[in-house]
Amino acid sequence: MVAGAQQVRRAREAAGLRTHCAAKSTLPQLLQAMIQQALAGSGSLGHHLRLVMNTRISDSAAIQRRASLNWEFYQELFGRVLKPLARPKDHAESFHAGLRLLALDGSHFSLRNSAAVMAMTRPRPGNQRASAGAFMKWSTAVLLELGTHAPLSVACSTLGMERMEMEIDIARRTLPTLATLGPSLLLADRLYGCASFMLEVMEQGQGHAHCLMRVRDNLRAQQLEVLHDGSALMRVRSDTKARAKAASCEMVVRELRAEVRRTGGKAQTLRLWTTLLDARKHPAEELLKLYAQRWEQELFFRELKRHTGATSMLQADSEQTAQGAFAALVLAASEVAQRRVEAATEADLPVLRLSIAKMGQMLGQLTSMLQSAGDVLTPAQRAAMSHKWLQVMVREAVIPPRRARSCQHGLRRPHSPWPVIRKRVFIDPEVLLTLLPATSP
Q: Locate the Transposase IS4-like domain: which residues (predicted)?
């Protein structure tokens, strides 16, 4: 009995090794299975790889194959796959004065408490009570094209770090892509709004990239000139680059200040820096309204975690496997973005009027059908089925215009002091955006 069990075990190991070795020549199928798993949000990698390859392969062999792909491979793949999708004639919301609108932000994913994660020496982030968090956090950054939600460049935490990397340091690794995108305008929040980061954007963009970033109120700047539209030219200095004896540690930016107030709400002051110095070509009021599109970056991460990846916890047992899982999410998001742009173009609708959740779900179904059919369908039949399925996706994925965040809040059966709502009323309060003119010193 023992010898028989050993033979069975050896046979299974040999079968797994053979399928693993056979899978070495099927890298496109492995990547397709990773994307399909990300779109489905369930099922093992081996399950999806068996569907794609129409062959037998164990789950462990599929995981070993994915583990052999390092982050350098994914970076090279991203450089070939992640491309801008917006066109000036068809997607005017993705451009401003000929500049492609981009956004940069970071987010954290949770890692499961596996043996490899528990053995990490890096301290866990604390919660609000100053105690260790339940899960180890893993940081990422994404450079995004606004209007289409197409990822253009990504970065993640480096393996083996003793301390958690700063989000801004991870985001810096996405900046070399700016040189390949042509004229662009990068929008970012206060974390990135500083002279050192803006200087790096200008350097990496090779003169084609510009910035529009919110900055903190305590950053110092020297006023040079007050412009006719209420903005002002300021000279700012990067102390970090000055200490490093960099070639350029100063730059001239244009500062805009505005007050945002909702009807019946408190006023909030915005302070923005931009490298667009021409006030006649880029009026201050247009730039202030343009900055509101930065919130699309927050929507993208929600889509990436909930609709594409099903959860904010990666299907990974270590940092290395987390890189593969995150890469699959990015590839899936890029695939869905491409299909959504195609569907929106055919239906003559704005791209964001198509549900990313339904698009991802139906795209996964189409991929499963085509892979299961194999050689039964001819290339012409596959193209016809894909086109027909695209029409179905357009019909099913259209969503009504988004309600404002100011929609009335309440419960039908409240268990709290919230008001009872028997009939929901849509209230659209006026948002007052007032430019605060700069004054001469």
A: 100-312
